[in-house]
Amino acid sequence: MNFHYPNGRRYIPKQSKGLPTKADKQLSYSNRGMTLEDDLNETNLFYLEQKLAVIHKKPTPVQIVQVDYPKRSAAVIREAYFKQASTTDYNGVYKGKYIDFEAKETRHKTSFPLKNFHEHQIHHMETVLLHGGICFIIIRFSATEEVYLLPANHLIAFWNRMNSGGRKSITKQEIAECSHPIKLGFRPRIDYIKVIDYLYNLTGEKGIQLQ
Amino acid sequence: MNFHYPNGRRYIPKQSKGLPTKADKQLSYSNRGMTLEDDLNETNLFYLEQKLAVIHKKPTPVQIVQVDYPKRSAAVIREAYFKQASTTDYNGVYKGKYIDFEAKETRHKTSFPLKNFHEHQIHHMETVLLHGGICFIIIRFSATEEVYLLPANHLIAFWNRMNSGGRKSITKQEIAECSHPIKLGFRPRIDYIKVIDYLYNLTGEKGIQLQ
């Protein structure tokens, strides 16, 4: 819990003027140990509880090879391998529209490397757009804690540029131009629905026509 | 490959008049060893290839406990458990609309037991409907190879009847009244999109307003 003086300044305990205390660390977002995935899961739970949207992360795809069935207890998977996802990680419904996105974070400071995606994920995004779905990526720069929503059509353009021999990443400048910053909050942590409302003109509408 | 005489009768090889041959077995749908899941996966692949819809089965949710990282080879999951799914198995986008469904088969002949579903799946379906998504179940009676599409609002009503002390299953008669039969085909095998077009008046439209 944070205390505030009547003047609105944050209360800083005296001992923290030397080495940072545990309380100081908790004040900083980066030290909370929350990943982008954690934040999005909490955001989606908030949307669900508030009846704003139904968006879930898909389970990690696993190729199961061997399963044991011990007596009187649950089946145990004894050999399995991670499979490459053929789609994006998150999807669901908002105001009747299909929502589909991928979330990635990077430690890079000046650009976002495109190797974070696979060819078939880009292809999936193209297909979703073709069918009138809302598709985007959420990017977090972990060093600066900046979060952006980049519509899939822009990502696809950067991907095609790379495939034509261009650069293998998106510069920070390009992200600033093509994407929308998402301010970090408390509840929800990453309020991407607000950006969707703005981008696709859904404010106050229920299932408005996008095409 | 099946041969047909000019009169349209199916060619039956002579030796098959005794014990059934392998070819005979292949003629029967039930003996193909295809599950409802196989059929739906092929159907969804067909829809994807034909650019009709983007609908995928979600991966089986697994709780991973222990992973080995052998040198020079892929990570091996050594201990994991099946988790109960919190949503339905299939979702995606068709004509801009969010599609969400669960598929179940039963060996019962006269009714469909509601124990095939979990409370939270029913709750998920209610939520999807609330947000303007298209939600239903696909039921197969394996003994008779009949396949039905039952809109989620009916399933929810039967579920509530059970929770109020009513019967724990849906009778075949009720299914005939509330659902839509899906004729089995070759490509696609279970053409449920046709039923959606009909039920939600989407024929010839792209992303038509449902609310």
From TrEMBL, chains A, B:
Organism placement in taxonomy: Bacteria, Bacillati, Bacillota, Bacilli, Bacillales
- The coding gene here is recU
**Entry keyword set:** Cytoplasm, DNA damage, DNA recombination, DNA repair, Endonuclease, Hydrolase, Magnesium, Metal-binding, Nuclease
Check the record and name the Gene3D superfamilies matching this protein.
3.40.1350.10
Name it.
Answer: Holliday junction resolvase RecU
A biological process term (GO) from this entry:
DNA repair
Sites where the protein binds Mg(2+): 87, 89, 102, 121
Q: Which organism is it from?
A: Bacillus canaveralius
Site positions (Transition state stabilizer) are 104
GO cellular component: a single term? cytoplasm
